[in-house]
Amino acid sequence: MSSASPAAPAGQAISALDGLPVEVMFAQIMQAVQKSHHEISELRQECSELRLANTSLERQVREGLQYNFHTARNGTPGFMTPAPPSPQLRALKFSPFLNHPIPSITTTSPDTSYYRPSPLGDNTLTAFPFGNRDIPGFYVVIPAGGAGTRLWPLSREEHPKFLLDLTLKGRSLIQATWDRLLPLSSATRTTVVAGPGHVSSIREQLPDLLPDNLFCEPGPKDSMAAIGLAAAVLARRDPEAVIGSFAADHMISGDDAFLSAVAEAVEVARKDYLVTIGIAPSHPSTGFGYVRLGEKLDMKEAPNARLVSSFKEKPDARTAASYIATGNYRWNAGMFVTKATFLLQLLDEYKPELAEGLRRIADVWDDEAQRQVVLEEVWSGLEKIPIDNAVAEPAAIEGRVAVVPATFGWDDVGDFSSLADLLPAEANQPRILGDNNLVVTEQVAGGIVVPGSGRLIACLGVDDLVIVDMPDTLLVTTRARSQEVKRLVKRCREAGWKQLL
After folding, report:
1. Which end of the chain is more exposed for a tag (fewer CB within 10 A), N or C?
2. DSSP state of 402
3. Mean pLDDT across the stretch 38-60?
4. Where in this chain does the entry annotate a coiled-coil region (predicted)?
5. Side-chain half-sphere CA neighbours of 32 within 13 A
């Protein structure tokens, strides 16, 4: 009986095809074969991702999971990884933050000193294996650019702020970004776009980043070219790809709220919208751009999503206060989620020359020799423009940009004043980034001190100062003027001190 039962459906199928032309029968058979090939391809992709996840877990288990719940600051377990070093100071054997020699980057040696990573908020690598937050078809793009000149001399051109551990928690900003986003996309769908000077350091700090997913741009062309390049390449790899761009140097707390906002943004993006994530403002900041909320989209899968009425540039203090008073504005954190093909469509409409150049590069991206030839021909001529100005602002006027208002904590660590707010301190005492024993104060309130040189810093009767003492440079300013450090960097360059920048 068991051998005869499968024959019945086959016989029915044959009789159902009686009378059909041979061409139709052949087309149906080919369609079935193609479907089988597609399903096999998907299974292979899933197996590949599982192998990568298992390899990563095995490596982390070999290194050892060392965690002490009694001494942890935030009570969040995490895997042990080496503290990221500062190549600028490697010869001096001092970290810009710690009072001990810099450990070498190693992923296998049991003799390496390890530090418990406490990524911002509650994001940890341990959350990934125990809960499936994966969003099928979602690709993470991490633009890693900029020199962070407002944090000079802590941040340098060759070792910018996204490579630094600015909170002494054992993970650099780009590592914390990786940890936070990995559960949504896996290593196979996480890409980083960076300049040639930072590729080596990024590979050291993100050992699980696939070589094919590290896109090297020949020179800085602002966010539109970087994100557009990733979109063009990923659209060729997967025409249905939804991409999310998240800066490498931002700090986020409240990961559940963050991941929920991203999941909503992906659902809205699938309906052909460019989606940004709006941050609830905690104060009338003059350093951030703003998004004005429009009408609700009434999507069941994204109940909080709204249209963007307009984007606002960085306002003065009075205007920022009026924005917050209305309740209709959110900070623009530069997080964008959209279909890769839709972003290219917007570029075709608003910046056709840029779109054409990026497509030319993407067409030969997988051929390394051809890639270099086309990059040399095309890249230098691409327009240098932020994604906001290039596509977000004009598309918002036409009702094609949406926003998901979010509740998680966020900061772009734009200067020493904002960095000071992220560090713990006793009441009315300065914040110290580094060894507390190297700072002695008397009648000093507020401010931030970075004892990066290893020598004693003594302060008497000065309030709200910014003191950054590095082995090769000393910066002294006030918190109120920390946004102007960028001007000082320019003056140093003009004075012939480029080697220290």
Report:
1. N
2. E
3. 58
4. 33-60
5. 6
Cα separation, 237 vs 227, whole angstroms: 15
pLDDT tens readout for residues 329-354: 999 999 999 999 999 999 999 999 99
For residues 176 and 186, the answer to whether their CB atoms sit within 8 Å is no
How far apart, in whole angstroms, are the C-alpha atoms of residue 58 and residue 64? 10
Token pair for 278: 């709006």
Q: How far apart are CA 92 and CA 337, in angstroms?
A: 42
β-strands 457-460, 474-478 pairing:
unpaired
CA trace torsion 431, 433, 439, 445 (10° rounding): -10
Neighbouring-strand partners of residue 194: 144, 216
Q: What is the layout of strands, in order, in the sheet containing 448-451? A: 431-432, 448-451, 465-469, 474-478
Residue type, 61: V
388 contacts 261 by C-beta, under 8 angstroms: no
Q: Which residue has the higher pLDDT, 189 or 134?
A: 189
Tokens 């140097």 belong to 249
Amino acid at 313: E
The amino acid at residue 493 is R
Tokens at 18, concatenated: 């009686």
List, in sequence order, every beta strand (DSSP E) within 370-456: 401-406, 409-411, 431-432, 439-442, 448-451
Residues 6+ apart with CB under 8 A from 425: 431, 432
Q: pLDDT tens across 267-277, in order?
A: 999 999 999 99
State how far the Cα of 192 lies from the Cα of 209, in Å rounded to an integer. Answer: 8
Tens of pLDDT, residues 31-47: 777 777 766 766 666 56
Closest CA to 234 of 258, 260, 215: 215
Q: How far apart are CA 232 and CA 360, in angstroms?
A: 9
Q: Is 381 helix (H, G, I), strand (E, B) or coil?
A: helix
Helix (H) or strand (E) holding 296: strand 289-296
